[in-house]
Amino acid sequence: MAQSQVTLAPVQLGPIAVPTPVVLSPMAGVTNWPFRVLCEEYGPDGLYVAEMVTARALVAKNPKAFRLCRFAPSERVRSLQLYGVDPIIMEKATRMVVEGGMADHIDLNFGCPVPKVTRRGGGSALPWKLDLFKELLNRVVSVCSSANIPVTAKIRVGIDADHTTFLEAGHIAQEEGCAAVALHARTTAEYYGGHSDWDRIGQLVEELDIPVLGNGDIWSAEDALAMVEQTGCAGVEIGRGCQGRPWLFRDIANAFAGSSKRVEPTLGQVGQIVSRHAQLLTEFYDGDEQMAVHDMRKHVAWYLKGFPVGGGTRRAFMECESLADLDQQIALLPQDAPYPESIAAKPRGRVRYAKKVKLPQGWLDSRETTHDEREALFGDDPMDASY
Length: 387
Ligand SMILES: Cc1cc2nc3c(=O)[nH]c(=O)nc-3n(C[C@H](O)[C@H](O)[C@H](O)COP(=O)(O)O)c2cc1C
Description:
Blueprint: E1 11-13, E2 16-18, E3 22-24, H1 33-42, E4 47-54, H2 55-59, H3 63-68, E5 79-83, H4 87-99, E6 105-110, H5 115-118, H6 130-146, E7 151-160, E8 163-164, H7 166-175, E9 180-187, H8 198-207, E10 212-215, H9 221-231, E11 235-238, H10 248-256, H11 267-284, H12 289-304, H13 311-318, H14 323-332, H15 341-344, H16 371-377
Parallel strand pairs: 3-4, 3-11, 4-5, 5-6, 6-7, 7-9, 9-10, 10-11
Antiparallel strand pairs: 1-2, 7-8
Helix pairs in contact: 1-11, 4-6, 6-7, 7-8, 9-10, 11-12, 11-14
């Protein structure tokens, strides 16, 4: 393979230096501290964001929300993502995080396309309402700036092709003092289907002075190089591509350092990572092995993707109830099976289009929220009880 000429300069987020701006994209149910620790070991100079935490759940001191805010001592930057619709609740949650010294960086979720979120005006639906978006950012950034904690915003292209929001949202984020913007280059309507439109990332890079992190469809180190080359983005954010492949962060760091060296573990080596991941998850679940092993099911499916492992063995993994069961299955795997290079860099995880975008009634009629809309939005949110 030819040596790459594409490089990434360090990115500065307030007081935090990110020497290699390769970022683990927040993923609910995936990017808890055990997975982040594994990823960071392969790329110590990147940034690893926790999964989204609902502001209202934090304010209500929901113990499950607090569990998502835990970090391992080894984590270099404690990077938390908050989700919320009500600017006042977001401000309160931010104050808790800041005053409790709970994080070093706060990312805000304006990208979630899930119907139960967008029908409440949250996630990727929110930037459509310019007043709400601006107020929310303003309140969060004001609280954070007193503690010198950088805030970043993660956005999508818009709601659909006729209702794009990313350029305005990027400008507002910049004006309100965000340290960077991450753009997942799909609309809500596109959900996770097709390929993200990297041209949109390039467009946002042209518009903004703050760093733009490009996100969407990086499945290999080569994809990361291509995104930076095509768009000029300051950094890349990796979601589904690292599911079952925490070593992708080393591949990408190598690629930006001009090296063609890639991590290609045998199945035996992957088994050791699976075992360690399960042990760490057991700690995450306060010693509850069964919860950890059940949570590992999706990870195991990703880790084994492409390896010559039959349906019976895969099912046996899904039936494990303890770490011992899991280790027993791992020991039975053909340890020398080589890394399935051909399948490794292919799409994994969610790849579907949305059936229909769900929004609050009349959401698209105006770019500003009405009094009645706000009243309806800021009532009890079923999302808050979803942990
Ligand atoms: C299982 C899953 C959970 C996700 N959870 C979050 C989340 O909590 N917060 C967020 O901003 N994005 C979330 N995302 C979106 C990803 O961070 C990322 O933007 C998206 O997957 C596109 O990047 P990719 O093509 O590299 O996967 C999630 C995606 C997946 C697949």
